Amino acid sequence: MSEQSPAPEVVYDPTDPMNRKEQMFPRLEDAMIRRIATYGQEENVPAGTMLFERGQRGADFFLVLDGLVEIFDVDKHGQSNVFTMYAARQFSGEMNMFNQRAVMASARVAMDSRVLRVRSADFRRMVAAEADISEIIMRAFILRRVGLIRAGFGGVVLVGPGHSGDTLRLERFLVRNGYPHRLIDTEVDPDADGFIECFQLHPDQLPVVICPERCFLQNPTTSELADELGLTEVIDPDFVYDVAVAGAGPAGLAAAVYAASEGLSTIVVEGVAPGGQAGTSSKIENYLGFPTGISGQALAGRAQAQAQKFGARLAISRQASALDCSVHPFRMQLDDGQTIQARVVIVATGARYRKLDVPGYELFEGAGIHYACTAMEGQLCKNEEVVVVGGGNSAGQAAVFLSRIASHVHVLVRSSGLAATMSDYLVQRILLSSSITLHTHSEIVGLEGEGRLKHVTWQQRETGELTTRPVSNVFVMIGAEPNTDWLKDCLALDNKGFVLTGRCAQGHLLESPYATTKPGIFAVGDVRSGSVKRVASSVGEGSVVIQAVHSYLAPSPV
């Protein structure tokens, strides 16, 4: 008998939802099913009946009583690909059940079945009223979304050169919004030639996005992609919200969670994706309650789900472009022309990234210069030298994260060190790491490359020494400027453009430290003058401001 080689060791991955199938596809107890039945109606459905289709908004919730329901998508040849089946006492749906976005897969009855249908509006009522059922559903929906992302089911195919600025822009949008997709990198992927030949593409037409329904988008804008995928919300211009939150960073999401959970009709407007700058952090280790750390994207995703669970609406890929504060309700104008009316506006638009003053800098934005450091950017840096510019916590987190991927990390700061601007635990990791070199009194003076970044030159200002290294990725984290251009003359700003809060125009203290010079408009988070630029403080401000919102909305005593 020949000797057999040992079977490969199977490594358990606790983050893989397929290792938690009992939570991903739970079977509900009879008592829970009876309670759910009070929110819906029982139906006998013949085999082959479609329950909902990909692209549909506001799909109903289905609980299988008897029979079988299959979840599927359609490939480029029009063939059904069944990837999930629900049997008796199991239920349909994933995170899109909590909003009005288009569903990413279709459902049909595989055999004559009996189901319990809960309409979309009644589903929201059920989730709000039945805490134990809500917990099971929420956990299952989150795990299912993670599973969809990992497997690429129900998603899109992005075809383009991996280092292209537009490819990175589109992939970053899909990643940060948790949308399943597969990247076919035309620089390295052997499948790329087949796609390019099949769709008769030329290199200058890339990147393209291909949907299961045969949609074909050639280098779309972020808004065009969001519209095609059904990620945007249709806003009723006549409806008046209690609260409109501009910005879905930690402060904005916290405000949305507390406002919605306390019964206020709430909408959040966000230009790119939930999380703000914090959402681009690879790992936040000093946020209370997460001793092993959590990525900014994961934290933002949980907060988004939490806000939607309580009924808040999120308008993604649309940002506030103007605010008419001369009328009440206030009228917030969005960059796509839509208008939101609200009794209260919470400004949580945070800040935009500062840029380096280096010749040719704009040529390499998105093609080697990054303002975020997540796993997506990290995969571009494997076994290469990288540069991180900045001395704050974001720069420190990026350097530590990249030191496990890149061959070496160069940290450039203009000051004499890190202690004054960075948390000590990060400073110590940087100083002790053999994979990281700190260059003080240093700044980038040259960028070279054709189409994408290839070489970086920096200068040590005290000695004048120049250093040039083969670097294709630079992470610029040198602070930010407030996103307050859209406010125009509505509010008083400080000399740097941050919103002044806590005092009226005459300098008297206001009831809330987050109140602005315009009653009914509040500011929280990084956009507020004097704020502490930390995730925890932003979350605190977003939650506390709702008390002032209630006071403002309360009817005046007679």
Automatic annotation (TrEMBL):
Q: What EC numbers are recorded for this enzyme?
A: 1.8.1.9
SUPFAM superfamilies named in the record? cAMP-binding domain-like, FAD/NAD(P)-binding domain
One example of the protein's molecular function in GO is: thioredoxin-disulfide reductase (NADPH) activity
Q: Which InterPro entries match?
A: cNMP-bd_dom (IPR000595), cNMP-bd_dom_sf (IPR018490), FAD/NAD-bd_sf (IPR036188), FAD/NAD-binding_dom (IPR023753), Ferredoxin-NADP_redctase_2 (IPR050097), RmlC-like_jellyroll (IPR014710)
Q: Where in the cell is it found?
A: Cytoplasm
Q: Which residues form the Cyclic nucleotide-binding domain?
A: 24-144
Keywords for the protein's UniProt record, in alphabetical order = Flavoprotein, Oxidoreductase
- Report the principal subcellular site: cytoplasm
The record's PANTHER family line, in alphabetical order, gives:
THIOREDOXIN REDUCTASE 1-RELATED-RELATED
State the protein's name.
Thioredoxin reductase (NADPH)
